[in-house]
UniProtKB/TrEMBL annotation, chain A:
<dbReference type="GO" id="GO:0048038">
    <property type="term" value="F:quinone binding"/>
</dbReference>
<keyword id="KW-1133">Transmembrane helix</keyword>
<protein>
    <recommendedName>
        <fullName>NADH-quinone oxidoreductase subunit N</fullName>
        <ecNumber>7.1.1.-</ecNumber>
    </recommendedName>
</protein>
<dbReference type="InterPro" id="IPR001750">
    <property type="entry name" value="ND/Mrp_TM"/>
</dbReference>
<keyword id="KW-1278">Translocase</keyword>
<feature type="transmembrane region" description="Helical">
    <location>
        <begin position="97"/>
        <end position="114"/>
    </location>
</feature>
<feature type="transmembrane region" description="Helical">
    <location>
        <begin position="6"/>
        <end position="24"/>
    </location>
</feature>
<feature type="transmembrane region" description="Helical">
    <location>
        <begin position="149"/>
        <end position="173"/>
    </location>
</feature>
<comment type="function">
    <text>NDH-1 shuttles electrons from NADH, via FMN and iron-sulfur (Fe-S) centers, to quinones in the respiratory chain. The immediate electron acceptor for the enzyme in this species is believed to be ubiquinone. Couples the redox reaction to proton translocation (for every two electrons transferred, four hydrogen ions are translocated across the cytoplasmic membrane), and thus conserves the redox energy in a proton gradient.</text>
</comment>
<keyword id="KW-0874">Quinone</keyword>
<feature type="transmembrane region" description="Helical">
    <location>
        <begin position="67"/>
        <end position="85"/>
    </location>
</feature>
<dbReference type="GO" id="GO:0050136">
    <property type="term" value="F:NADH dehydrogenase (quinone) (non-electrogenic) activity"/>
</dbReference>
<keyword id="KW-0830">Ubiquinone</keyword>
<comment type="similarity">
    <text>Belongs to the complex I subunit 2 family.</text>
</comment>
<feature type="transmembrane region" description="Helical">
    <location>
        <begin position="286"/>
        <end position="304"/>
    </location>
</feature>
<dbReference type="GO" id="GO:0005886">
    <property type="term" value="C:plasma membrane"/>
</dbReference>
<dbReference type="GO" id="GO:0008137">
    <property type="term" value="F:NADH dehydrogenase (ubiquinone) activity"/>
</dbReference>
Length: 464, 514
């Protein structure tokens, strides 16, 4: 029984440990965080094959949730490693920082396994509240409070939508357990209440995914909070959102009116994100708008649940998490003491740290979706699946967006390659350099030989 | 089954084509183990020479009379998408592969002194482009083809952006964005074919029976993708910028091999996968080709910068290639193929010469480089040879190709021939103008103008020899390519011309055409 929730146990232990450490005012907690992260990854590997049902079917441990808890644990570990010494965060709050992100991770783990709508809602809230707090942990300044306010208000509004949607779904189906809802779906395909319920329910997910029109928090939070915190916010909640979209929303895709809504949201998200990103001169803001456009790509896959679209979304979400972490690895390294990380901070990166420059170039090529990187393979999977399901115009929009995206991704690559006038030497610690190299190789590997990961993703989808 | 779809395993032991692709790519990574600049130059030279030697048995073991593809390698790559690692050569791709490997050592030699910062990285980029370009010509899985096609952007972007001239960033970004703008349509076409055929494998897709409407749109999507690369007027404006800013080796690769990716794609994919649309839309190709020949020629005539002059002459020459493809007869195809190879040798040679001149006088202006006959007789000998070949003087390589293209145009229609003939005259005008301005006149600093050295001779001589050999005796080339071209021709034979107004009408709002 406990085999199934080993990662949850490890992360809870970590949370308790960091809570006590925060009271004792201990330093050097990063090692502990990395240690817990490593153990959590191992624990999720052990539990990979188990299938258990908890709380009368409200929480299920199956291949799907284990796949995501493995990814979330890996991302947790990576976020702890690239955070380094938390230079941008408040020195006094190191213990609290790790405590809150551990709690948030626990919430995400709960979300991936939730098969009951209220459990799912609670999981999402557990993962959100700690982030509202850590988003304000920034040394000096005061801007971060504005961004936290935005983050919280948008979060509250979108979860209110979501809760409202859940009540509609309960009204339509008479239950909040997926096990009861699934068999009843065919009779509710034209039920306006159920459709409205799903659309409202999606609001909370779109917020987590920072998809249009719930993306307005992203640029401000990305820019306002400490880079170490944003690395976490940008990567992990997205994974849970993908898991939920695939697990819950894909069930309802046969419903009348849902596909057009999703199509329009996906296209708008891709296009708006890309267009807004074009003029950005601040790295984190640029990444925020790029996140909006990538959320659109992830949504596309849901249009084709029968043609491999779910596997494609899952793969793309996975790849996107690694690309984001890789981009923030560099962002954290080049961050100065000022409020923003202007793109000019990347100037001459090639001279200052060749490893970081190579990784940054590969990451941005992958974000742009060019071969031979994982971003391209993910996009190809999405496009073939969506077109196969008969949607040409979303595919066309996605392809045009690839071109628009290229303008600003190329801008970042360009800045990191040109020499700067006074190159400030950059000496990332050796474990950061090896991680950078590993992430670059991973993005190439997932681009060239994605077969193994795709099989895992297919198995995860199969176990739904 | 189409004769094009037959696959023959390699008569030689081992994965031969993979070796030619991956030898330079692995070499590129090996370079990073080396610290010294001099050593990395030598290592790059050795690897590219070795690659050329390794590619030679392809020629000797190739059996032109066999239909379909030879030296085939086929492995499952990504099962979920039905992708395979499918390589093979036929009479169309083999000469291009050999051209690529043949030019490799010359590109290293011409960068020997020209590149003196970040030498190791430059050589790595050269090796990468070489491997990737070979991959483009031998890939028979459409996604694999696209992989190589796009992957080529990265090292080429770096070559222009890091080692280029003063406006290198502008040129490099323009190059990438133009190519990407075209290749998103290529990607759409590839995915579109997959939606209908359920596979990405080129030989399997040949058996596909597409609806005319689909053929029409797929042809156009492929055409846009390839037209940017060729480049066809009006999508050519990236080329002069890229050529002028790129270092010599970059220009040579661009002109000699990279542009051929586009015309290769037209021959390989447009004509065989969408034959009915090709027959119907060939006039579009012809009109654009004539425009390229005349417009490119006129622009070339007006240039003061030697590199720009040659860049615009490339637009005109590639116009002859697309013309040969567009007339859809055997002479045209043969002419197009020969012109692709000869343009590779001739223009490659001219760019090598311009690079040498620039190393000496640090100027590419015609006016700054006058009176070379007196100062650098050896240089002028090669300049004369490549210029003559460029204007298709009888006895040089380009003559045969251009003649066949022209005779293809004439046998298509007399009027078309009349349109193209001024293009051939223009070629003579701009090439002689350049040659005369550089050779005679007063000027030039004798101290700067040393004659070409041994290393430079080594980079030029192989090209010069081939220019003369192919000019006098093109038979071996024709023997290799004829069967493949005939099977393309046979595929086009009997295709009926589609009613285009129907498709265009569907795409436009009702009443638009009235």
């Amino acid at each position: 029984m406990f085999n199934g929730i080993l990662p949850e146990i490890v992360i809870s232990t970590a949370a308790i440990f960091f809570f006590i450490s925060s009271l004792l005012d201990r330093k050097n907690l990063q090692r502990w965080a990395m240690g817990f992260g490593g153990v959590a990854v191992l624990a999720s590997l052990i539990g990979l094959k188990h299938k258990y049902i908890f709380f009368h079917g409200a929480f299920t441990v199956d291949g799907f949730s284990r796949f995501f808890s493995l990814l979330i644990c890996v991302a947790y570990l990576l976020a702890c490693v690239i955070g380094g010494r938390l230079r941008q965060t408040d020195d006094q709050k190191t213990g609290e920082f790790y405590f809150f992100i551990s709690i948030s991770t626990l919430g995400l783990l709960l979300v991936t396994g939730a098969t009951e709508l209220l459990t799912l809602f609670i999981g999402l809230e557990i993962s959100s509240y700690p982030l509202f707090i850590v988003a304000s942990y920034r040394k000096g300044l005061g801007y971060q409070f504005e961004s936290v306010a935005k983050y919280m208000i948008f979060g509250a509004v979108s979860t209110a939508f979501m809760l409202y949607g859940i009540t509609y779904l309960y009204g339509a189906f008479g239950s909040t357990f997926l096990a009861d809802i699934i068999p009843a779906i065919p009779t509710h395909l034209h039920d306006p209440m159920a459709v409205l319920g799903v659309i409202l329910f999606m609001a909370g997910l779109l917020y987590k995914l920072s998809a249009f029109p719930f993306h307005f928090w992203a640029p401000d939070v990305y820019a306002g909070s400490a880079a170490e915190v944003v690395a976490y916010i940008a990567a992990l909640p997205k994974l849970a959102a993908v898991a939920l979209l695939v697990r819950v929303v894909s069930l309802f895709m046969d419903m009348e009116g849902l596909t057009p809504v999703l199509t329009i949201l996906a296209i708008l998200s891709m296009t708006m994100g890309n267009l807004m990103a074009l003029t950005q001169t601040e790295l984190k803001r640029l990444l925020a708008y790029s996140a909006v456009s990538h959320a659109g790509y992830i949504l596309l896959g849901l249009l084709a649940p029968a043609d491999g679209g779910l596997t494609a979304s899952l793969f793309y979400g996975t790849v996107y998490t690694f690309m984001t972490l890789a981009a923030f690895l560099v962002a954290i390294q080049v961050a100065g003491d000022e409020h923003d990380i202007p793109l000019d901070n990347l100037a001459g990166l090639w001279h200052r740290s060749p490893v970081l420059a190579i990784m940054l170039v590969i990451t941005f090529i992958s974000l742009a979706g060019l071969p031979p990187t994982a971003g391209f393979t993910g996009k190809l999977l999405l496009l073939t699946a969506v077109w196969k399901a008969g949607y040409f115009w979303p595919v066309f929009a996605a392809v045009i967006n690839t071109l628009i995206g290229m303008f600003y991704y190329l801008k970042v690559i360009k800045i990191s390659l040109v020499s700067s006038t006074d190159p400030v030497p950059l000496a990332p610690p050796s474990h950061i350099r090896s991680l950078a190299l590993a992430l670059a190789l991973l993005l190439l590997f997932l681009g060239l030989l994605p077969g193994g990961v795709l099989e895992l993703a297919e198995a995860a989808i199969g176990s739904l | 089954m189409s004769p094009l779809a037959i696959l023959h395993p390699s008569p030689l032991d081992g994965p031969y084509l993979s070796l030619i692709i991956f030898l330079p790519i692995i070499g590129a990574f090996l370079l990073f183990l080396i610290r010294s600049d001099e050593m990395s130059r030598w290592l790059a030279l050795i690897i590219l020479s070795l690659t050329f030697l390794v590619s030679l048995p392809l020629y000797s073991a190739f059996q032109p009379e066999l239909p379909g593809f030879q030296f085939v390698e086929n492995h499952v790559w990504i099962r979920q998408l039905g992708l395979s690692y499918l390589l093979g050569v036929d009479g169309i791709s083999l000469p291009l592969v050999l051209l690529t490997t043949f030019l490799g050592p010359s590109t290293v030699l011409c960068s020997w002194r020209y590149i003196n910062k970040r030498v190791r990285e430059f050589m790595a980029c050269l090796l990468l482009t070489q491997g990737i370009l070979t991959g483009v010509f031998v890939a028979l899985d459409l996604v694999l083809f696209y992989f190589f096609w796009e992957a080529m952007l990265i090292p080429m972007f770096l070559i222009i952006a890091i080692w280029g001239g003063p406006r290198r960033m502008y040129a490099a970004i323009k190059f990438v964005l133009y190519t990407l703008g075209g290749s998103i349509f290529l990607l759409l076409a590839i995915v579109g074919l997959y939606i209908h055929g359920g596979t990405f494998s080129y030989p399997a897709l040949l058996g596909l029976d597409l609806a005319p409407r689909w053929e029409f749109w797929l042809f156009l999507a492929f055409l846009v993708g390839f037209a940017v690369k060729i480049p066809m007027v009006p999508l050519h404006t990236w080329l002069p910028a890229a050529h002028v800013e790129a270092p010599t080796a970059g220009s040579v690769i661009l002109a000699s091999v990279l542009l051929k990716m586009g015309t290769y794609g037209l021959l390989r994919f447009n004509l065989t996968l969408t034959p009915a649309a090709s027959v119907s839309l060939a006039p579009v190709l012809i009109v654009l080709s004539v425009a390229a020949i005349l417009y490119g020629g006129l622009l070339s005539l007006a240039q003061q910068d030697i590199k720009k002059l040659i860049a615009y002459s490339s637009v005109a020459h590639m116009g002859f290639v697309t013309l040969g493809i567009g007339v859809l007869n055997m002479q045209g195809f043969q002419g197009a193929m020969l012109q692709m190879l000869n343009h590779g040798l001739t223009t490659g040679g001219l760019f090598l010469l311009v690079g040498m001149l620039y190393e000496r006088t640090h100027s590419r202006e015609l006016a700054d480089n006058a009176g070379l006959a007196r100062l650098m007789p050896g240089f002028v000998f090669f300049l004369g040879l490549f210029s003559l070949s460029s204007l298709a003087f009888p006895g040089t390589a380009s003559f045969v190709g251009e003649f066949l293209c022209l005779s293809g145009a004439f046998s298509h229609s007399l009027r078309l021939g009349a349109w193209v003939i001024p293009g051939a005259l223009l070629a003579a005008a701009y090439m002689f103008r350049m040659f005369i301005k550089l050779t005679w006149g007063r000027g030039g600093d004798p101290a700067l103008a040393r004659d070409i050295g041994l290393r430079e001779l080594a980079s030029l001589l192989p090209l010069a020899i081939l220019v003369i050999v192919f000019g006098l005796y093109p038979a071996p080339l024709l023997k290799i390519m004829n069967p493949a071209l005939e099977s393309i021709s046979a595929r086009l034979h009997g295709q009926t011309v589609m009613d285009l107004s129907a498709f265009i009408g569907q795409a436009l709002p009702p009443g638009f055409l009235n």
